[in-house]
Structures are given as structure tokens and as C-alpha cells.
Write a structure and sequence with these properties.
With about 260 residues, the protein is α/β, with parallel strands linked by helices. Helix content is about 30%, strand content about 25%.
Length: about 260
């Protein structure tokens, strides 16, 4: 099974610690998919700075295919992070060369050679998703906590598996919004609810997914782990409930240690 992750990457830079950690939704999903025994690639752009090399080296160390990562003149995307009383406080985001990132025809050919493509809100590829889906390659898209973002309006008609996150739990309002999202094109709409589990809608019924109990050390990357586990289940043609369990189980592993990966 081969998963193609495409779009944004980011270095979380802890200046008070003098450390930087690679991440970004598609990047994380690729790493977690390999952890589950699959194959994955990442297509995106990094800068000519040290952070760009750090990102590529880190992905290579996790056996993620970086053959379609472009190195563009300029700075790699970074998010400034501070630790305040043990809690992460996110500061400014600098998009860097990702603002210039666009898919080429060769990139699209490469992505369509995989079993599934996964991307997210900040990937700058929303206008290319229709070309990928027209060639029969399924697409997963993560809206993060912003299902109403204008980028989603562009992408949703070409998406098979739409993910987003909510802190509000399983409410009538959430279910109504999931129905509206489903009506715009996806086969499945899946919402992760943190410690309250997850919820999926397939156009006919809602399916509730429970958490896998674990000792929570750090929530960084938990949602991306869920997506990787869920998509592995989809590719294995597992029932929906089992896909949701596989997502939760993979998430529980990530919750048990510091950092995303």
C-alpha cells in the first residue's frame, strides 16, 4: 500500500530551547503510515536554509520517499513555538517558499501512481485535486479545525475522505454540519473529537468511534496519526468501524510520547 502525502510542511522552532522539530499535517501522516508498515512519499517544497535539509533528512530517516520534494531559494516554513509552564504556545507562522509551491504535471503523474493521496488546508494544491481524482486516485483531505475555510470550498468536490476536528463533542449541530459537508461530494466525513472519540457519516448513518485508552504524554500529532490509521483500514477494505478503531489505536501510540515523531 502506497500513500502520497502532498502539501505543507513546517518546522516547529522552539527558540527558547534552541531546537526545531519537523512536522506539518501531510508530512506527519506519511511518517505514521510508514510506521504502520505501509509505503509513503511526501511531495512539497523546502527552502535552501538548514531547516530544509533538516526536513528532508528527517523524512529520509523515517523511510518516506522525498524524491518529489522541491528545494526552492528561500526559507523553509516555520512556526514559532514557546514552552510556557510546560504548555506549547504557538506564535507567528512564516510560510516561506511554500507560498511558491505548485504541482507540476510530473508531480501529478507521481501522485497518481499511489493508492491514495492525502493533503490538508495549507498545501496550496486545492485547485489540482480534481485532476488527481479524475484519474481514479482517491483523495483524503484534512480541514483541521476549519471546515468552513474558503480552501475547503474549492477542494471538497474532489475529496473522497474529509476529516476535521472539533472540541464540542457529538452534538446535533455537528451532525447537521457533517450532513451538509457530505452533500458536497465526499464519500465519508470523519470528525475527530479528542478524548471523546470520533464520528463518521457515510450518507446513510453515523458511526461512533471510541478512543483507545492510553497514558497521554503529548497530544502533538494525534489527529494525523488517526488519519494514517484510518486510511490504512480503508486501503485494506476494512469495515468503517474497524477503520475508526485503527485510527484511534495509532493515535494512542503517538499520545504516549513527546513530540509528533
Amino acid at each position: 500500500m502506497r500513500l502520497a502525502a502532498v502539501g505543507d510542511n513546517c518546522l516547529d522552532v522552539y527558540e527558547n530551547l534552541g531546537k526545531a522539530f519537523p512536522g506539518g499535517n501531510p508530512v506527519n501522516v506519511a511518517v505514521y503510515f510508514v510506521r504502520l508498515g505501509g509505503e509513503a512519499s511526501y511531495t512539497g517544497a523546502v527552502g535552501t536554509d538548514n531547516y530544509g535539509k533538516l526536513m528532508i533528512d528527517a523524512l529520509n530517516s523515517k523511510n518516506v520517499d522525498t524524491s518529489h520534494v522541491k528545494t526552492l531559494e528561500g526559507s523553509t516554513a516555520i512556526t514559532h513555538v514557546e514552552l510556557v509552564d510546560g504548555e506549547r504556545v504557538f506564535g507567528d507562522y512564516e510560510e516561506g517558499v511554500l507560498a511558491q509551491f505548485r504541482l507540476t504535471d510530473d508531480d501529478i503523474d507521481f501522485l497518481c501512481g499511489h493508492d491514495i493521496v492525502v493533503t490538508a488546508l495549507w498545501g496550496n494544491v486545492e485547485h489540482d485535486l480534481a485532476k488527481i481524482r479524475q484519474r481514479g486516485t482517491p483523495i483524503a483531505f484534512d480541514c483541521a479545525t476549519r471546515p468552513d475555510d474558503p480552501v475547503v470550498d474549492v477542494a471538497i468536490g474532489s475529496v473522497d475522505y474529509l476529516f476535521y476536528a472539533s472540541d464540542d463533542g457529538d452534538t446535533p449541530e455537528l451532525r447537521e454540519n457533517m450532513k451538509k459537508m457530505y452533500a458536497r461530494g465526499p464519500k465519508l466525513v470523519i470528525v475527530t473529537l479528542g478524548e471523546k472519540g470520533s464520528l463518521a457519516y457515510d450518507g446513510k448513518a453515523f458511526t461512533i468511534g471510541n478512543i483507545v485508552p492510553c497514558n497521554v504524554v503529548d497530544t502533538m500529532g494525534a489527529g494525523d496519526s488517526y488519519i494514517a490509521g484510518f486510511l490504512r483500514g480503508i486501503l485494506e477494505k476494512k469495515p468503517l468501524g474497524e477503520c475508526m478503531y485503527m485510527g484511534a489505536a495509532n493515535s494512542s501510540v503517538t499520545l504516549g510520547y513527546n513530540g509528533a515523531w
